[in-house]
Amino acid sequence: MIYLDHNATTPVLPEVRDAMLPYLGEEWGNPSSSYRFGSQLKSKIEIAREQVAVLIGSKSPREILFTSGGTESNNTAIHAAIMSRPDKRHLITSQVEHSSVLTYCRYLETHHSYRITYLTVDHEGLLSMADLEAALTDDTAVVSLMWANNETGALFPVEQVSHLCQSKGVLFHCDAVQAAGKLPVEVRSLPIDYLSLTGHKIGAPKGIGALYVQRKAPFVPFLHGGHQERARRGGTENVASIVGFGTAAALATKKLPRFETTVRPLRDALEQGILASIPHTELNGHPSQRLANTTNITFHGIESEALLLLLDQAGICASSGSACLADSPDPSHVIAAMKPGSAARQCVRFSLGISLEKVAIAEVLSELKSAIQTLGGQP
Q1: Class of the 14-252 domain?
Q2: To 5 degrees, how large is the angle CA 206–CA 211–CA 217?
Q3: Above 70 in pLDDT, residue 326?
Q4: Residues with a known catalytic role
Q5: Which residues contact 181 (CB under 8 A, 6 or more apart)?
Q6: Which of 41, 102, 207, 283 has the most CB atoms in a 10 Å sphere around its CB?
Q7: Where are the domain boundaries for CATH 3.40.640.10 in the chain?
Q8: Residue ranges matching CATH 3.90.1150.10 in the chain
Q9: How far from each other are the two terminal CA atoms of the chain, in whole angstroms?
Q10: Is 325 a residue whose pLDDT tops 60?
Q11: Average pLDDT in the chain
Q12: What is the three-class DSSP state of 295?
């Protein structure tokens, strides 16, 4: 198998699995217990909290709140912002955000009468700072924008956005699920109030995530229950997955300096090979202002689902967009927002990992040409 869908999920790293095993076996206690068998696990959670804090350059591990994943983190951040400012009824996001942000915003719009501004992007998937500034009002409670797009890899100007929001007294939430571990994230130097993370994009298991809450940012819990996570997120802690996330974060921090230099040349070789050798193909996204591991290609005249099926039969894993919307009959909302009226059903995303070998690129190109020919396109 050649796996080219790392933006959907990543394999659990062997070091992560090994770190988790004791907490799926003999160390099965409840961290909230008063006796040592359970309570000693709290120290393991705090080590993981520190490891995640280091990955994103947080000033303090106390700014890290463990969640069940990116969706909960995104929902929690927006909830915290609007509940702490109940007099403000306006939110700003973009048309290309992850479904966990867009769906929650539409829920607030439909059921709670919030006014939502959905910023457009240009044909390369980039955001206009002028559009954002024009959309800000005295009624704006929070701006929620991603750092890196999950489908195209396009990067938003997070530094500029955060400083603009700060200057206007507006809370800023950043979905950094795709950015963390792939490019430097230093929240200590940016006025970001909330930042979302998830474990399974960096080699940890699914079902564990985190939310960075800047120490001065207002916070109202999304989940109510016990006193866990300093009473900010009720529920017995998932110790094994938290330890796994911490281990994965430490590994990602160590590998970060060579992620781009290792992955970008392979991504570029694949991308250039497709565009040069397969007619009627087009890059979706900015040529350089995007993640080093991501390329999204339109194969004009070829339905992406049919192409992906043939690639799957050849042992190659890729996708037509976000895994969270894989069952949806609708075309990619990201590509549709970038290129209205374009062939949004004819796009394939390839997202590479650091362990990919160069020899795989030639095999992928060969299988792609064969699949295109089978589907009636020009090889």
Answers
A1: alpha beta
A2: 170
A3: no
A4: 324
A5: 55, 201, 202, 249, 252, 255, 256, 259
A6: 41
A7: 14-252
A8: 2-7+258-374
A9: 23
A10: no
A11: 95
A12: strand
